[in-house]
Amino acid sequence: MSGNTERNRTNESTRIRSKVQNWSTSRRNFLRAAVAAGGLASGFSSVAVNDAAAAGIPTPWLHRDGNLIKDPDGNTVTLRGVNIADPKRIDVTAPARGMTAVQVIDMLTNESNGWYPRMIRLPVQPVDIGEYEPGSGPPIPAFDQSQLESYLNDHLDAAVQRCAERGVYCIIDYHRHRDVQWAEGQSGPVNTALQDEVNMFWDIVAPRYADQSHVLYEVYNEPQEPGMWNDPTTTEWVADIWRLWLDMAQPWVDTIRSHADNLILMGSPSWSQSPEGALVEEFSGSDIAYTYHVYPGHNVSAESCHCWDDATVNGEGVAQVYEQAPLFVTEFGWEQNAGRYIGGTDTFGNAFLDWLGQSDAIHWTAWVADPVWQPVMFDRPFADNADDSVGDPYNGTVPEDCPNVPCEWSLNTGSGFMGDTIKTTLSNLRNDGVPGSGGGGGDTTAPTAPSNLSVTETTSSSVTVSWDGSTDSGGSGLAHYAVSVDGSQNQTVSAGTTSTTVDSLASETSYEIGVTAVDGAGNTSGAVTTTAATDGGSTGGLVINDYDGSPAWSSNTNDLGQWCGGGSFQNGGGAVSGDALVLEYNNGGWIQEQINQDISDYTTLVLTAKGASGGEESGIQFEMGGVSTSLSNVTTDSIGTSAADVAVDLESAGVDRSASSLSLRLNFWGAGSSTLSIQELRLE
Length: 684
What we know:
- The protein is an alpha+beta fold.
- Strands 4-5-6-7-8-9-10-11 form an eight-stranded parallel barrel.
- The chain starts with a helix and ends with a strand.
């Protein structure tokens, strides 16, 4: 009997998953056909999602000006809206939830039904990208590149596009928030595996939507422990945790900025309850705002306190950080009898909305416009209420409560719920702080194309180009330049810059480099192109190792035919990726290259290298010819985040170049946590 029961359960699971997958595939095909036909905006009409078009607002490029967000015309913009559930989770549970993600966006932007959000937050969960059980904290890494690409193609792209069509900004939120520490303790080290996972996400996602002015990037939803449980402006150990968080997350900011100019929203340790760390030291980079999450169960939200400006209360208040930087409250909400969200409109909601309204620098998205995830704003009249989940779409079954989507949701009302209060507030504020139409809503004129693109420098792995700038007469202003390599976008360059270096290229290879101009309304100019060829594997001299796979690393033989090797790195003995030896280290690791010959005729050792953060030379120990010291003591160059030469004057450093058993060794013990990529070691 138990065997038959298990077999029946398995068959039912297979049947439901197959139906969901077939339905999802049909939906994707319909979406693509509708987009091609220009008919997507009127798709999926029903009682819940009708044909009434949403007027929306212009969504030009936004930028930070002090503590304010402004459009290209200088208008102050304040954005308010709602969260939805993860778009993939909505799509694969649509037979239970009642709608797809696109249909939810249609419903929430239907002005004829009284909805006026100006921003919708899209939480992208690693648990859904990698298809783990709902409610779990997935392992690190939670997914691979192929799974991420499928997620974007099949779910996120449609949601982002729908937001654009409905005239609403959207936040792409990397929504990791369970069962993982971002650092081992208050003094580190940081979690490099998690750092790599998030970096891989943004390295793929950031360039994908880099030309879409309505998209904002929230880098990491809720970093957990170590937390900041006091005011960092008055308590040094808390400030130190913030500085450790800067070390952890700055590489993500740098990755995004290497691809895109979209507004960046940064969270904070202790579940994004401590944005006041920005008062100690801000992240490096342009157009960065900070996020804040708070619910009725937090100390600062107690009815006797309502002290959201007081960071001394368990570190949960913001210490008025919004007077220095824009503040995005991307999660808050309430629901009676809902665990940690317990609270009501009278005891929490009204007072918190008043607090949110005190400054044009405070933006918000209420959590969550969904009938399943809590605190809920809606009910499913066609089914019983769910408790934060409706089945397991990836490893089990999904109830079929709505065989023919969409099925209408009902708005939760009354003092114990937030639905009607949030909807009314958004309606009342629908004309407050919106971008001006001159900022991009009516601009259909593309900028002029860049001109005189030329190659100014080449190495074995990079090409530097420059061009004459573009102009824009459409009213939204020039936003950035998009640089492509062989037709694929490689990076974006800010509007005021007319040169860039494209690196990580193969040696002795010809590439087509292209540059286009993009304005604040997303209009793209024609492209100017040029052909550039990288140099040979060496610029001259004696190559010790160029890590080109011949000989392979580590076959214990370098380009001099001598022994080489490494060990104790996070990735073993190091690994060759492309044309570089990649060394992932966390206060440990070593590599050694035997030279074993008199090199008195050579005066300089050159490392062509780049680091994950830059400045890695200060932690690396250099050992050669009787010299043992920090690499920073024997070079005037600094390791950057783009590949470049770091030169060591061997004579000035005191290296004995006549030794017959000469070797070069780099030690990483006590070097902190980072990644170094070495493309070549040579003598000149």
